[in-house]
Amino acid sequence: MNKYIDLFLTFAKIGTFTFGGGYSMLPMIQREIVERKQWTTNEDIINYYAIGQCTPGVIAVNTATFVGSKTAGIPGGIIATLGIITPSIIIIMIIANIINLFLGNAFVEKALSGIRVTVCALMIYSIWGMIKKSIKDILCFFLLTAAVVSTLFFNISPVYISITGIIIGIINCLCRKDKIK
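The structure corresponding to this sequence follows.
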């Protein structure tokens, strides 16, 4: 039972103290889940983020579900998911009840502006870490470059970019049968 409580509290802590969505949570997830708890590896977290990006739902919730399932099976996945969403539900309910009091307040507007910039910095930090761990060869570098260019300059849907990455990854795997573990 302690494992389930630990899963819930760990993911509740992550859900409580990070703002800005899944990518801004990555540094805290890595610190808590990989370094402190050692429930999984950095490579697994990157894989969970990649899979979570390609599946329906919020990326942080998907990642919590993956980690919880790996750590304690299906009940662990459910408990980790509840842990990461509970703080948001509580905070949103509180804010929803008092938001009208703060709309238009210059102090609140400036605070939110500061939070947005900080969240951008956290996202860049997380993405840079993912890039460093994901670029394993020239093909990976090419895929990264092509994905960035396709998104920024040609407005190609992330769905098509993800599908293309999957197809190229499978073809690369099939062409390099000697390196399959």
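The chain has a mean pLDDT of 86.
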